[in-house]
Amino acid sequence: MPKAIPMIITNEDILVKRKESDEFIAFKMPGIEESCNIPFYHQFAQKISECQYYFKLFIKKEYGKKYSKSILAIITPDDTSALESIFINEFFLNSGACKAVAQMTMGQAISKNHSKYISISKSQRNITLQYINNNEVRAKKYYDFNSYDLKTIAEDAKSLHIDIEYE
Q1: CA 36, CA 56: separation in Å to the nearest integer?
Q2: How far apart are CA 10 and CA 18, in angstroms?
Q3: pTM for this prediction
Q4: What SS3 string covers the chain?
Q5: At what angle do helices 48-63 and 82-93 cross, to 10 degrees?
Q6: pLDDT per position as a tens digit, 51-102
Q7: Is the Cβ–Cβ distance between 101 and 72 less than 8 Å?
Q8: I need a surface site. Which of 20, 50, 57, 93 has the fewest CB within 10 A?
Q9: Within a 10 A sphere around the Cβ of 160, how many other Cβ atoms?
Q10: Which phi and psi angles does 13 have, rounded to 5°?
């Protein structure tokens, strides 16, 4: 069975689990400039082959010769759009650093002990409220990062999905 390489995409970089420990190391692409409210990986599109090359070297250095037979288990921010998710998958698959990609949001990765829960997260762009049921995002609502009200979010959480309203 192929080995999984755990990764977390944060607001600023990609954290990759070290091969020999539970520690994560950061991959930062040289020459990528930070833009307000735009995730750093959007900048990868401008230098895609260069970014893929450096990422492959980074993985090869940490995981050795058999890195390309691994599956990248990626946790993305909760506000990652479907299009961004496709870009992330294609970026890593075409880098040559793995044979497959498995992706889930941070909200889905919060709890393995509870089958139903509400997740609230904050990124550079949004506050994201999610209802997770059996590891599937059943409902999601976004709030502007610069103008949100905690009382409104708490009230919205009570009626985010019909399951929640009747429990």
Answers
A1: 27
A2: 17
A3: 0.84
A4: CCCEEEEEECCCCEEEECCCCCCEEEECCCCCCCECCECHHHHHHHHHHHHHHHHHHHHHHHHCHHHHHCEEEEEECCCCCHHHHHHHHHHHHCCCCCCEEEEEEHHHHCCCCCCEEEEEEECCCEEEEEEEECCEEEEEEEEECCCCCHHHHHHHHHCCCHHHHCC
A5: 60
A6: 899 999 999 999 887 777 889 999 999 999 899 999 999 999 999 889 999 9
A7: yes
A8: 20
A9: 19
A10: -160, -175
Q: Torsions phi, psi of 79, nearest 5?
A: -95, 15
Q: What is the pLDDT of residues 125-160, one digit of tens each?
A: 889 999 999 989 999 999 988 888 899 999 999 999
What count of residues does the chain have? 167
Query: Measured in whole angstroms, how far is the alpha carbon of residue 156 from the centre of its chain?
Result: 24
Residues facing 25 on adjacent strands = 16
